[in-house]
Amino acid sequence: MSTQANNDVTTRDTWEEAEEAAETTLAQQTSKLSLNANAAEFRPNVYAKEFIPSWLPQPAQTLSEPVVEKSESETLADILVEGTPPLPKPAPVTENETEKKTAPSSTIATASTSTQITESAPEEQDEHVDAELLKELYGKEHLNVVFIGHVDAGKSTMGGNLLYITGMVDQRTMEKYEREAKEQGRESWYLSWALDTNKEERAKGKTVECGRAYFETDKRRYTILDAPGHKNYVPSMIGGASQADVAVLVISARKGEFETGFERGGQTREHALLVRTLGVNRLIVVVNKMDDPTVCWSKARYDECVTKLTPFLKGSGYNPATDLQFMPVSGYTGANLKDRVSEEVCSWYSGPSLLEYLDNLQALDRKVDAALMMPIDMGTVVVGKIESGKVSKGQTVLIMPNRRAVEVSLVYNELEEEIKVGLCGDNVRLRLRGIEEEDISTGFVVCSTLAPVKTTTAFEAQLAILEHKNILCAGYSAVLHVHACVEEVSISALLHSLDRKTGRRSKRPPQFVKKGQKVIARLESSAPICVESYEDYPQLGRFTLRDEGKTIAIGKITKIIESE
Ligand code: GDP
């Protein structure tokens, strides 16, 4: 194994091969998912990670080249699995370039509103972003990592230890946790306390979302996104995972635990499948607890875990050659987290440590030069993840869908430090001047004044029905989750069904659609929502439909119908 991501091209054949299995597994697995929380209790941001993962070999110069047109014959696996993530269309343009063009396609919402933009479009202040600064910031790129896996696999312990070994939590604090944990008879838990304390502290701050922790290496800044292992937390995991660039699947190698987590209806399968569904294309599988007395860094046990997991993960759409990286670790002792495990402890593994691997993942493709789009996650000091472009202090931006031009007076990073510019992929807080709290809500989008996000109440989408006890007909209502936005929608018309084998569209509109089928439908929302077609901005064009606490369908927007 090498420290670099494997660069083999993901071939069409491989994906097609995986597709059938994925389809079957998905239908089976998703139907078992206990997505039983009330839809109103969480706000999954189901936008895709369209950052074309660096590990998918895409030389920089090809990024702006046109993609092979995708036909409607895309299969479910195509929807779920971004084997070859589509490139944005039109190719990202810089704000300056945008200025030169007349009415770029993505700017037009309606005739009347676009007039409004032209009239009121204040100058964007990109001069704040000098090349040096970009280089500096880009040099230490930000990566969102979600830890997934069965409860007790060791996610918190590993997270806590990562904070410790990267110096985010000092030794004295760690010793304090150790003492306190000992007093409470939970000695082995002390490392996870670092993560939990961090959560608590952050939960106090009004504008900071809980469940996140941060650490830095010499090369990168990391956000650990929370993904609780308990069944009931699956919906909140969706929220975390949908913002992740990469997932770390934690597997316990301890005798009996691997079996519980994976073989006997544990959450390992669900989580792996869900993150894939949410567009996380890269999975690092850490076989944990290798130090445990029942394991003792046994190669045979490690191999057993890898051998059993591989076919399943392949079936979920991960290509073992390009998307998966296995490694043995001990989150508890820290072996192979930062420093490679020593020869004496483990003679048979010579691959990278976890941080070494994460640090060396090729730079993610981020559309820093494209129009700014940042779905608002909360508050008046708005919080969200920049999905496209960059935002700088002093810049004038538009809040959509209410089309209000406001000034960004301050930009903070995830450590609550003031920064000059936030880049695509960063989680930031923006203090806005010129707008009141009541004029902003979750799911609105901060965007470029020149190329604002589209706003609509109707769109066409390709839907893959995962789960529903009855047939679905026109008139059916469900809750749409797209990026940070949650809105009631109804299927106003079923337009075409898609043939399972050929993917061909039916000429006649189907009367109904049921579990396992795919359909092109027209959807209407009760209020205007900010969305883009999947082809242009995957992270703003991919969604889930939920009803009665279950994910009924996943979909991608194929066409936005402009409002009259
Ligand atoms: P989570 O539910 O996945 O967050 O798991 P925790 O981090 O809370 O760990 C569950 C239990 O496994 C605790 O008792 C930990 O001390 C123990 N544990 C976690 N990681 C390791 C490890 O690498 N080695 C050993 N031996 N035990 C571990």
Automatic annotation (TrEMBL):
<dbReference type="InterPro" id="IPR009001">
    <property type="entry name" value="Transl_elong_EF1A/Init_IF2_C"/>
</dbReference>
<dbReference type="InterPro" id="IPR050100">
    <property type="entry name" value="TRAFAC_GTPase_members"/>
</dbReference>
<dbReference type="InterPro" id="IPR009000">
    <property type="entry name" value="Transl_B-barrel_sf"/>
</dbReference>
<keyword id="KW-0677">Repeat</keyword>
<feature type="region of interest" description="Disordered">
    <location>
        <begin position="1"/>
        <end position="29"/>
    </location>
</feature>
<feature type="region of interest" description="Disordered">
    <location>
        <begin position="81"/>
        <end position="127"/>
    </location>
</feature>
<dbReference type="GO" id="GO:0000288">
    <property type="term" value="P:nuclear-transcribed mRNA catabolic process, deadenylation-dependent decay"/>
</dbReference>
<dbReference type="InterPro" id="IPR003285">
    <property type="entry name" value="Sup35"/>
</dbReference>
<keyword id="KW-0547">Nucleotide-binding</keyword>
<feature type="compositionally biased region" description="Low complexity">
    <location>
        <begin position="103"/>
        <end position="120"/>
    </location>
</feature>
<dbReference type="Pfam" id="PF22594">
    <property type="entry name" value="GTP-eEF1A_C"/>
</dbReference>
<protein>
    <recommendedName>
        <fullName>Eukaryotic peptide chain release factor GTP-binding subunit</fullName>
    </recommendedName>
</protein>
<dbReference type="InterPro" id="IPR004161">
    <property type="entry name" value="EFTu-like_2"/>
</dbReference>
<dbReference type="GO" id="GO:0003924">
    <property type="term" value="F:GTPase activity"/>
</dbReference>
<dbReference type="GO" id="GO:0005525">
    <property type="term" value="F:GTP binding"/>
</dbReference>
<dbReference type="GO" id="GO:0018444">
    <property type="term" value="C:translation release factor complex"/>
</dbReference>
<dbReference type="Pfam" id="PF00009">
    <property type="entry name" value="GTP_EFTU"/>
</dbReference>
<dbReference type="Pfam" id="PF03144">
    <property type="entry name" value="GTP_EFTU_D2"/>
</dbReference>
<dbReference type="InterPro" id="IPR000795">
    <property type="entry name" value="T_Tr_GTP-bd_dom"/>
</dbReference>
<feature type="domain" description="Tr-type G">
    <location>
        <begin position="140"/>
        <end position="366"/>
    </location>
</feature>
<comment type="similarity">
    <text>Belongs to the TRAFAC class translation factor GTPase superfamily. Classic translation factor GTPase family. EF-Tu/EF-1A subfamily.</text>
</comment>
<dbReference type="GO" id="GO:0003747">
    <property type="term" value="F:translation release factor activity"/>
</dbReference>
<dbReference type="InterPro" id="IPR027417">
    <property type="entry name" value="P-loop_NTPase"/>
</dbReference>
<keyword id="KW-0597">Phosphoprotein</keyword>
<dbReference type="InterPro" id="IPR031157">
    <property type="entry name" value="G_TR_CS"/>
</dbReference>
<keyword id="KW-0648">Protein biosynthesis</keyword>
<keyword id="KW-0342">GTP-binding</keyword>
<dbReference type="InterPro" id="IPR054696">
    <property type="entry name" value="GTP-eEF1A_C"/>
</dbReference>
<keyword id="KW-0963">Cytoplasm</keyword>
